[in-house]
Write a structure and sequence with these properties.
Largest sheet: 7 strands, mixed
CATH architecture of the largest domain: 2-Layer Sandwich
Distance between the termini: 92 Å
Number of helices: 11
Order of helices and strands: HHHHHEEHEEHEEHEEEHEHH
CATH class of the largest domain: Alpha Beta
Strand order of the largest sheet: 1-5-6-10-9-8-7
Bound molecules: 3,4-dihydroxyphenylalanine
Shape: rod-shaped
Amino acid sequence: MEMQEELRRIQQEAAGELEKIADKPGLEDIRLRMLGKKGQLTQLLRSMSKLPPEERPKAGQMINAVRQKLTEQMDELEASLRRKEQERALEREIIDITEPREHTHYGTKHPLSLIEDKMISIFTSMGFDVVEGPEVELDLFNFELLNIPKNHPARDAQDTFYIEDNIVLRTQTSGVQAHTMLERKPPIRIICPGRVYRADEVDATHSPVFHQLEGLVIDKDVTMADLKGTLDIFAQSLFGEDVTTRFRPSFFPFTEPSAEVDLTCMACHGKGCRVCKGTGWIEVLGAGMVNPKVLEMCGIDSSVYGGFAFGIGIERIAMLHYGITDMRLLYEGDVRFLSQFRED
Ligand code: DAH
């Protein structure tokens, strides 16, 4: 009987203390005091040896029942303490999504990239593939296969940086024409955008590094009308329906005949203004019918195939499109300038 009373006392004491527990260390403390090696219940279990043998099983059962009950209560309490702690943590970490945050400055695409992307999408929509070529180029591709032999006066206009006697920084994307003709069989329809180099002084319209987009079409029965039609579509897609092209006779060693191509002045729609120096036209690119000599050097039978080519300065197009009057702005990386251009 004595033991029963002791058990009840322990149970009551534990229940009273458990009610007051507010945290895990407090709980562990009671657990130790009740159920630990030297805990009250364990002591009681040990004192069973003093009981007469016939009472022991009953007493053991009672103690174990209390032990189990206490263990369950403590486990429950532990779970509820953990839940409360989690809730508190969630409350602490709550994020107010309505609170205004610091303004993020997004970058913008460079105007040259915007224009290059536009040009690429216009030509790819006409069925052109985009190919790239090396900026460090053999003299062979930059000049010789384009019908510009060593010591030819046409080299003067394209003085460049020599890596070695026969290796240059390419002066034009035209070299990619030769690479492509040697690698692919006609029909060929490619554009090649890329960086080119010339030994030029920097000013409002010149830079030693600039960008071109080359075009090449090789097939049977290609005429100059195809060239004009292609460039008309290009000009109209970029500058508007009322823009047309005008071809003026010119010379490039790799095309015959060759033309300088003007576009209707987009500032005055051809009436004549300051931008076009009163002519109504603006010179924008070089083009022509691929010289049969170039075709033959690049392994294409010129009695079967012909084609046209063109080379467009991307800076020039960007400046005309955005009304930029000084090319240097395109290279200075001034965010106040660059952030004005966005994709439309
Ligand atoms: N490569 C020439 C230049 O840099 C531009 C050019 C003119 C390219 C006529 C062509 C072309 O493909 O047919 O001035």
